[in-house]
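Lecture 7 notes: from sequence to structure.
We start with the chain below.
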Amino acid sequence: MARAPLPSANWHYPTQVRFGIGRISELAQCCAELGITRPLVVTDAGLAKLSMINRILTSLRDTGMAASLFSQVKGNPVGQNVLDGVDAFHDGGHDGVISVGGGSAMDAGKVIAMYQGQSKPLFDLGVHAEGGAGMDPDRIAPIIAVPTTAGTGSETGRAGLITDEATETKRIFAHPRMMAGIVIEDPTLCTGLPGDLTSWTGIDALAHCFEALCAPGAHPMADGIAIEGMRLVKEYLPRAVADGEDLEARGYMLAAASMGSTAFQKGLGAIHSLSHTIGALYDTHHGLTNAVYFPYVMDYNRAEISEKMDRLSAYLGLANPGYTGVLDWILETRQAYGIPHTISEMDIDDGDVDRVAAMSAADPTAPTNPVLLDADGARRIFLASLEGRIG
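Predicted structure tokens for the same chain:
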């Protein structure tokens, strides 16, 4: 039986999403809908070199828009990237932001759109809960998000993570108005992503869904989105890695990534607590770091998540039931994509273990871990990840 083609659809949850092949052609129309006439396109230095970005700029300029490019964004964006982006926003007289790329471009673009209208020092607006003291929501510029990777799902999130260079910590900036007004999910923009980055970002989407499901508290909507997001990753990530031109697989992975960020309104957990810390201190790839920590955090949380793993394993149709079946699937997935089994394989040792433990326990994602994540617990997970100890 022939596969049905990837559908084209408009979704309105949690924001307006234009999903399907070729939807990037609607970018200028999206700008008009949000009242943007002078967009600042925010991306990273690597993507800025690709013809895709030039085509986007040309398409905007052909409609009379004064579009310009800002690409000084690191893989783990830092405060100076935001400040430089705000300067570019003001210098060009821009009135909106188009974020194009992966999580780094999405996060930087959202925070640039927010901070260009604020008066307080940048990191005074970093928060552990939404709506930092002193943030003026009426001065947040409109945002359009165009993801080119299927991982962070930041395109459908209302927060951005930026590293404070002075303290080497990742800080969260969050407000409902920081969510993109329109998202364009066009799988043709993902076809150039190498297999390793496809797998790393895909497991990032998986981790978002997984931790959202495991987070304590009642949020049946988030739980339902999370388990279906994991099913999409299970079905389509192998295809996207095997054939980067598989537009159906690329499309549904984009959907899974957006579902992850939608679901984790409920909360995240220790995978991200450790990964945020390691990323800030060692500048590691976020998705890859999540992939490494996945089974060690599962082991730490086992007593509190086993019942949910019974339901998840059944929904995913895993060969083995329950917690063990899910863990086996995660380990097999990591192995299939060449993910390091230990954090030590990423040239990280125990020389900074106390700092890693303290920073991870203080991370905003720690309170929604299913098991209390204090410094002692974070230390145990970190040391297990160094030695490869599970169970």
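Points to note: The chain is about 50% helix and 10% strand. The first strand starts at residue 9 and ends at 12.
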